[in-house]
Amino acid sequence: MKFSILVANFNSAQYFADCYKSIVDQTYKDFEVIIVDDRSTDNSVEVIKSMIAGDDRFRLFFNEVNKGCGFTKWHCAEHATGEICGFLDPDDTLEPLALQVMIDEFRDNNDISIVFSRHNRCDSNLLPLTQSPIRRIPSGMSYLTFAQHAPEHFTAFRRLSYLSTDRLNKKFLRAIDQDLNFKLEEAGKLRIIDTITYNYRVHNNSLSNAGDYKALFWNMLAINDACERRGISSEVIANKVLQMHIEARVEHFRNLYYGVVNRKAYRIMMTAISPFLSVYRKLRK
Length: 285
Fold this sequence. Notes:
alpha/beta; Spore Coat Polysaccharide Biosynthesis Protein SpsA, Chain A; 9-stranded mixed β-sheet; 10 helices; 45% helix
């Protein structure tokens, strides 16, 4: 059972060595690596080529022009040939048993389409800071309706299940993984395992740091699309997600306000919250 590791690269030259080492150190050896470069402006291509030279398990492709994350991940999946696939960001790493753990789950459960595991949240030097919680979806709810759509690293999926959907949305700039997770949940069963398989690096250039309100906007689009496919209303789910985002930001800036009681802190708080309130009001109309 071949595993396709999918790497969508853009300007990750300084981190790719760690990513590469974590791949070749996998205990499960039946894998291929599909790398698509989104026209990086650093020396990513030179770095990647030098590392993968002579290893035919690695294949490097290029977008014709810079297309963004959604298109690049779609491009990766189009070249995959493995029965099982999973995305690995070029600035992150896998634990040595990651592929083996995922392969075992799919071999033992023919009806599942997607498997979530857990990850270490690390600093820029890959030193662990915290661990993601084990997610438990209540009985009678789906991943979509549960509405707690935090990143689920490492995630693996069955390629035949993916091909039965309308695949990744090439136009998405954020929430690409959420869009994919919703679609795969519709194609088969979802399984969650209590195993750390992934090291998620947090640094200044992380896509997840590129503006919470932007991620929220694309997450709302993914939710709306999924609800339309399933023939259900998106209002309740969207309101739950918005409320969680708003509460998290309000709490953060409330603490700031009480720590530094002045008008400047209040203005900072309202500036940060306003994008959420604007989206919320529009969706409520």
